[in-house]
Design a protein that fits this description.
It is a single chain. The strands form two sheets. Strands 1-4 form a two-stranded antiparallel ribbon. The chain has a two-stranded antiparallel sheet with strand order 2-3. The chain is built from 13 helices and four strands. The chain has a single domain, classed as A middle domain of Talin 1, CATH 1.20.1420.30. It is globular and about 50 Å long. The protein has 319 residues and is mainly alpha-helical. The two termini are 31 Å apart. Helix 4 (64-89) packs parallel to helix 12 (269-291). It has helices at residues 2-31, 35-47, 49-60, 64-89, 96-116, 124-152, 158-164, 167-201, 206-218, 220-231, 235-260, 269-291, 298-318; strands at residues 92-93, 121-122, 265-266, 295-296.
Length: 319
């Protein structure tokens, strides 16, 4: 039964990623937004919904270490594995906007979350601050995305935009996105359930499960979405999905789960002294890689994958 669910999960992940990328790219054109902005918002936040649901569930069941480990592990996995495998498949172009604004913002947030965790807890007020920053980030992202698109539009394009903005087209794109997200969430959920059961039988600790299996499993939507986007030539969506997901994880998932707990979100000492610094260093990796020629080539993708393998080995040795 576990094997059947695993196979069905993979099928749902592939189909869901295809529908999500297709719907998101068409919706970007219809709304006058760049694929990068859609990748940083709709696609990124949608594919991060498993992290949100799993973290909320574990917090409510008293397993806050798994919740925190899930977010931190997901952010490490997103950059090292997802960007690595996507770039290894096809070199990824990086827009200047990402290099100048979004990646430095992601790096700053990684450092801020580490600073908030100095007393081994992210308090409720710190959670409110993080979640409020997410709202501001979304508003600014959409505002400047539309403004840039409006300024770059050429005379005579209005009729073309109006035709793409028809209710029928937008509704179809939203249906594709909703179906894609639903398939991704169910597919990753079946995978995670089986993987956790297997890991517990093998005696793997809860923290390691959260940092690796749960983090990788809840990031499967990002994996398949970025890989499919890379294959389809929607490279802005592939890169924006990863950066946007990491920002959403830090501001939305960590922020909201900290708000839900009166005592705040507990951070284990191993997370504070090892995994959080790794997350910050991994985020910093993006700056030189993204700036160099504004492209992530296959060698850099292979390097990121190698670092992730070494990180997982270190986790199992230390825990």
């Amino acid at each position: 039964m576990t094997t059947i669910l695993f196979i069905l999960g993979l099928i749902l992940l592939l189909g869901g990623a295809e529908l999500l990328v297709r719907g998101a790219s068409k919706l970007a054109a219809a709304l006058g937004l760049s694929p990068l902005v859609i990748g940083l918002t709709v696609v990124a936040f949608g594919t991060s919904s498993p992290e949100f649901s799993v973290s909320l569930k574990t917090v409510l069941s008293g397993q806050s270490e798994v919740a925190a480990g899930n977010v931190i592990g997901s952010n490490i996995f997103n950059i090292l594995f997802i960007l690595g495998i996507s770039a290894f498949i096809t070199p990824l172009n990086v827009q200047e906007k990402l290099v100048r604004y979004d990646v430095p913002f992601m790096v700053a947030l990684s450092g801020l979350v580490w600073l908030f965790s100095y007393n081994l807890v992210i308090g409720r007020f710190e959670g409110i601050f993080l979640f409020s920053m997410l709202m501001i980030y979304i508003v600014l992202l959409i505002y400047f995305g539309r403004k840039k698109k409006d300024l770059s539009s050429e005379p005579g394009q209005e009729d073309d935009v109006a035709s793409r903005m028809s209710f029928k087209n937008v509704f179809r794109d939203l249906i594709f996105i909703a179906l894609g997200l639903t398939m991704l969430i169910y597919g990753s959920g079946w995978f995670v359930e089986g993987a956790i059961s297997a890991a517990r039988i093998l005696g793997v600790s809860e923290l390691v499960i959260g940092l690796t299996i749960v983090a990788a499993g809840t990031s499967l939507p990002e994996v398949f979405t970025s890989v499919i986007a890379a294959f389809r030539g929607e490279r802005d969506i592939a890169v924006g999905n990863v950066v946007g997901s990491n920002i959403f994880n830090l501001l939305g998932v960590l922020g909201f789960t900290a708000i839900m707990l009166p005592e705040g979100l507990s951070i284990s000492s191993s997370l504070f002294y090892f995994d959080l610094p790794v997350m910050l260093v991994v985020a910093l990796f993006c700056l030189p890689i993204f700036i160099t020629g504004k492209i992530i080539n296959r060698k850099e993708g292979a390097f990121l994958l190698l670092i992730y393998i070494l990180y997982v080995i270190a986790l199992y040795i230390l825990n």
